[in-house]
Amino acid sequence: MYVDFTRSEKGRKPDGNLLQTISLKSSGDLKLQIMVDKSSLEIFAVDGEKVFTSLIYPDQDATGVSVFGAGAKFIKLNVLNMDK
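Structure (tokenized):
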């Protein structure tokens, strides 16, 4: 799995940190918990077996997150408001 910051962090992170990878070994369904707030991104994979954390500095008008995978399909997606 990889996290691509090239569209959101170019000029804010060193070029070597714009594309970060996480090695996952999974057959079948893969459970990801992804948490985003005003300045951080956290991904928990395989019930916390792998964890990815990064500071993020999105523009004020940034309102979206994209998640995709080659040959993957989403079974369930929950979006929670972390302000409450």
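Residues 1-84 form one domain. The radius of gyration is 14 Å.
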